[in-house]
Each structure stands twice: as structure tokens, then as C-alpha cells.
Amino acid sequence: MTAYYILTRHIINSNIMNMKNTIKKSPVALAVLCFLIEEPMHPYRMQQLIKERGKDEVINVRHRTSIYQTIDRLHRDKAITIQEKKKNEGRPDLIVYEITDLGRNTAYSWIREMISTPAQEFLEFPAAVSFLALLTPEDVALLFKQRVSVLENTLARLEEDQFQKGASMSLPRLFLLEAEYQRAVLTAEIEWIQSIIADINAKRLKWSMEELREKEN
């Protein structure tokens, strides 16, 4: 292997890494790339798969335009390319996309990074918890009870969905792990909130703005 070949490969790999760094990472973008690793497909088929496979539980696709905007961006960044355009009677042509080498490398890189390295995500709930002092303990207990009710309903729905998919589609556990993770997180949050409610009710956790202001002064 000549020094020229080694240098050339190094330059090519460096260029690929630099191009990957310009691609905006997001769960929606990851889903698009992973679907196209399976096979070329059009955006409508991707939307179907997101729903069929329950990916909408872990990927925010509430806005229909989000997947199309993501596809346009990935195409612009050369992570995917147009394979063909199919005639669609009375409607715009269906554009079938396929993944590029850059897109494939990017998808695998994102998966490894997302799994191995926890991201610092700024969620609404812990942000609001950091300002609980502005409310009374009674208000917090009531609001927490309301949250627990919503979480329990979500947990029950996930368990039912997972049971139905596992029974009707005979899916191996590998394809149900994201739902399993969600259930574990929901269960842990419910248990934590219920412990805070119990502490408030037993007066083990109490506060008032007047006392807090006095301590600051």
C-alpha cells in the first residue's frame, strides 16, 4: 500500500466526516435515513411505516410537513438522492428516494452516538419543577396527581399496544425495545411523583414563599 494511496484515502475519509458534520441531526432525519437503508421509498410510505411501527411514539411527526422538510434538507445535503419519479393519477408524482453512502455512514454514526452518549435535553417538566417554590405545596400535590393520571393512561396504552403488536404480528423483542424503554421511564416518573405527593401530604416536604424570602434575607 503506497503512501499516496494512504494519503488519498485519508483525505476522502476526512471529506466524508466534514460533510456528515454539516447534516443536521434529528430523530426524524434518522428515521428517514434508516427507512432508506431498508429500501428506496417515497415520503408517503415513510409516513405509513412511522405509524405502522409505532415510531410516532418516540419521534415527533405531529406536523406532516416535518418529514417533507427533513427529506428536502437531506437531499440538499446529499445524504439521499432521487431514484425515480412515479406517476400518481390526478396527483403530483411520487418521488422515490434512495440513500447515498454519505447518508448510510451518517445514519450508523448517529445511531452509535445517540445510544452511547446521553444528550443534554432541556425538557419542560424538570424546568417547571425547578420553580415549584412559586406554588403552594397543595397546588403542587394536585398538579402532580393530574400528571400521574395522564402518565398512567399513557402507560396503559403503551402496554396494550405492545401486547397487541407482540401477539398479532409476532414481533421479536428487539422491535419492541423502544416501547419497553418508554414504559420503564414512565413507571419511574410515576413512582417518583407519587413519592413527592406522599411527602407533601405527610408534611415531610413543605415550604412557603414567605419563609423562603426570609431565608434569602
Automatic annotation (TrEMBL):
<feature type="domain" description="Transcription regulator PadR N-terminal">
    <location>
        <begin position="32"/>
        <end position="106"/>
    </location>
</feature>
<dbReference type="InterPro" id="IPR005149">
    <property type="entry name" value="Tscrpt_reg_PadR_N"/>
</dbReference>
<protein>
    <submittedName>
        <fullName>PadR family transcriptional regulator</fullName>
    </submittedName>
</protein>
<dbReference type="InterPro" id="IPR036390">
    <property type="entry name" value="WH_DNA-bd_sf"/>
</dbReference>
<dbReference type="Pfam" id="PF03551">
    <property type="entry name" value="PadR"/>
</dbReference>
<dbReference type="InterPro" id="IPR036388">
    <property type="entry name" value="WH-like_DNA-bd_sf"/>
</dbReference>
